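About this split. The held-out portion is used to measure sequence recovery: a designer receives only the structure tokens and must propose an amino acid at every position. Recovery is the fraction of positions where the proposal matches the reference. Here is one held-out target exactly as it appears in the evaluation file.
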């Protein structure tokens, strides 16, 4: 949506998901996901589902590994430049 140009992806995703179901509790975490903070981020809340909107393969693999260790459901979406 053109109205979301410049908006952080996490905020845009939150707005879109809220339109599907206004009763869904959406907690966003806008920070770089690294090996050093992965466990802390996943432990910060009692997440039911983790949504990955990262832009690069190493981060996607890291999020996948961290979710496997933490036994969290992962929903992943990816894009390559203007594709995806």
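Reference sequence for scoring:
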């Amino acid at each position: 949506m053109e109205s979301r140009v410049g908006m952080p992806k996490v905020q845009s995703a939150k707005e879109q998901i809220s339109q599907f179901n206004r009763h869904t509790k959406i907690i966003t975490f806008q920070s770089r996901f690294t090996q050093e903070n992965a466990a802390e981020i996943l432990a910060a809340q009692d997440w039911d589902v983790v949504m990955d909107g990262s832009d690069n393969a190493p981060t996607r693999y890291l999020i996948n590994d961290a979710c496997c260790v933490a036994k969290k459901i992962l929903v992943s979406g990816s894009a390559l430049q203007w594709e995806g």
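Annotator remark: The CA atoms of residues 49 and 73 lie 5 Å apart.
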